[in-house]
Specification:
Order of helices and strands: EEEHHHEEEEEEHEEHHHEEHHHHHHHHHH
Bound molecules: adenosine monophosphate, magnesium ion
Shape: globular
Strand content: 5-15%
Largest sheet: 7 strands, antiparallel
Radius of gyration: 23 Å
Amino acid sequence: MRKNTRKNEGNVMTEKDTVIKSGWSLESSYGLLPNVFFTRQNPTPVRAPKLIILQHSLAASLGLNAAYLNSEEGIAVLAGNRIPEGSAPLAQAYAGHQFGHFTMLGDGRALLLGEQITKAGKRVDIQLKGAGRTPYSRGGDGRAAVGPMLREYVISEAMYAFGIPTTRSLAVVATGEPVYRETVQPGAVLTRVADSHIRVGTFQYIAKWGTDQELRTLADYTIERHFPEIREDENPYRSLLREVIKRQAILIAKWQLVGFIHGVMNTDNMALSGESIDYGPCAFMDTYDPATVFSSIDIHGRYAYGNQPSIAQWNLKKFAETLLPLINEDKEQSVLQAQDALSSFHELFYSSWLTGMREKLGLFHEEPQDETFVNELLAMMKKYGADYTNTFRAFTLDKLEDTAFYGTEEFSAWQDKWLARLGRQEESKADALQLMKEKNPAIIPRNHRVEEALEAAGHEDYSVLERFLRALSSPFAYSPEQEEYAAPPDSSSCPYRTFCGT
Ligand code: AMP
Ligand code: MG
């Protein structure tokens, strides 16, 4: 990766003379790309920044000093009131298909401070979300509210704890300023940490408004940053497409396995790093139903749980289209090669998902009937309105009587097959239960508990949130403290809706 040569050009104070060592080690390789990729923009200072929450272990792994981040200077950086040394803030340009319609977008309320070089030598983006208006804000105020930013914090950190690739949340700072949504809400800035913020929409933007040379520059940058091992491949751009497809297939399989519904899988919300990104109207499914939709703006159910794999494939097709000029000079050849790569998605997704399902059922080996066997279970869950997470939780705890379909003939028949299947493997029942415990979370961030934590936080009581986050930080622990979080919502809080008014 090229070295940063460009330092902070704004005339905002830097933290050079700071007393506590900050640990910032920022570079800006993205800022060395051609101008079409971004606009330089400093954050807009806020009135009264106050740290609400800080992810200490993440700070440590980034090489940042928690005492500094807790200090007035550190908080000023997290609020956008002060620019750390080495930072050259910028808003990234991108486009995207939103609910199927192509639009020009860009960071309308987020600013990339730079790339932190972590203690382990990894390069990660540090972005402030809610840092003020940018040239891409369109009609928006460039701000974010405390509730949705804490929501992103909770969900992204839970995803991380599940072992699902995701952007992380380093901190949420209250700004001391109101933001005007459907109601007046307290404002906040979230510090997001990502392998990068390169999206399918970034390629769409350059493909539409940049030159072929700029497109090649973006592809080379992406390869260098995320897939250096394919650099010397015979056709690195075709390999790029294949690798991105592979990571997405694995990611979506993990979402499906844990019952995560992103809610707004627009192409601008699909990161090429293979991380889950942009936690807006997302939620975890309680009762199993492939048609589950939470987002209030998803009126046609485009992004329903069961549609996520095919939507990912649709988004990847849009990505492939941007790469056509690079894959082959001959357009027809290019299309054929892209189609060939895209056709791998289904198998990659499905095998990853089926492997995960086997593990959730304590099965160590493949058998030809696996697919039917798993689908029969899902059909029972749907028919009896079973809670997705708790069904596997009951299996893991060997408390089959806690499942919604226990005692039915269908389940007895299925259970016999399962027992026979377990009996055919060399591993003991204890081994199987151990595998299940490692794969089936004891808890998920259920919507009603997230809302409860955010409600308390709204009155500046963060104890509910902190307790919840502690329980979520080791989802496979099956500890007594986690039990209360396992309960599904009572029917009065269903159907749950998430709102995009973030
Ligand atoms: P999202 O739905 O969060 O993926 O955002 C879609 C687009 O809207 C992105 O370009 C965001 O930067 C932009 N956006 C969302 N909220 C705001 C806001 N309050 N002010 C300005 N731009 C925003
Ligand atoms: Mg977005």
